[in-house]
What we know:
Blueprint: H1 3-8, H2 13-29, H3 45-52, H4 58-66, H5 70-79
Helix pairs in contact: 2-3
Amino acid sequence: MTRSDLIALGYGPSFSRDIIRKAKILMVQKGFGFYNTKKLGRVPIEAVEEILGMTIDSDDLEKIRKTDGSALIKERQKDG
C-alpha cells in the first residue's frame, strides 16, 4: 500500500505520510530491515491495518487502483 492509495481512500496527505512512516517502523521492528530506507514508499496492507486498527476492504483497493480514486469517494458520499 502506498501513500497515494491512502489518499484515494480519503485520508489526508500528511496523515497518509505518517501512516506509511509508522508502518515502515513497525515492519523494521518485526525484523524486515529493508523497510529502513527513505526511498521505499510501499508497505504491506496488513501493517497499515495494524496501525489504523481496522481492516481495509479489498474491493475498495481494487477500485482505487483501477481509477484515480475519485469514483470511490463519490460512491461513499452517495452512501453517506
